[in-house]
Amino acid sequence: RAAPTGRDVSTTTLQPGHLPGVPSPLALTILGGDNVREPEQAAIFDGGFDAGGGAFDTGWIYGGGACQRLLGGWLARTGVRNEVVIVDKVAHTPRNTPDAIGPQVRDCLDRLGVDRIDLQLLDRDNLEVPRAEVVDGLVAICPCVVYFAYAVLTM
Q: What's the distance, CA 25 to chain centroid?
């Protein structure tokens, strides 16, 4: 079949799922990159998207923001923002306090050049702050995030 970028894709297309409130489907495979540079990263994004991958993983701490800027540039060049799901991570230790998380989300939006993050993961739990307090605070300051979840929970 012909892929959105015009290349022939002979692999099996991934079957996506759906998150209510997120306009694009969530692919079974989430693509990402850390410590990869252009043009290699763009090729990874192109190939994954062409094969049916429509979810991209990134994080505030990855490459000091370089990974998010690469993804944001790719999204701008391809014009597929509303066809993909962005899964982003903030709150990596020790920057996992409520007052540190909001600015991280805003940095992520700026670096990615987008107006929403579909699934925002909190990379590390903070046992000193009740989880409900963290999430409530995030919802209040980050209406641009569709879903919040913890990536790692400390028990």
A: 13
User: CA torsion, points 123, 129, 131, 133, in degrees to nearest 10?
Assistant: -120
The upper half-sphere exposure of residue 71, i.e. CA atoms within 13 Å in the direction of its Cβ, equals 33
**CA nearest neighbour of 83 among 57, 105, 56, 108:** 56
How far apart are the C-alpha atoms of 137 and 99, rounded to whole Å?
9
* Encoded tokens for 134: 């963290």
H or E element in which residue 32 lies: strand 30-32
Q: What is the pLDDT of residues 51-108, one digit of tens each?
A: 888 889 999 988 889 989 999 999 999 999 999 999 998 888 788 888 888 889 999 9
**Can you list the alpha helix ranges (DSSP code H) found in 6-147?**
40-50, 66-78, 98-112, 131-141
Residues 10-42 have pLDDT tens digits of 444 445 566 677 777 666 667 776 666 777 888
Q: Is 103 helix (H, G, I), strand (E, B) or coil?
A: helix
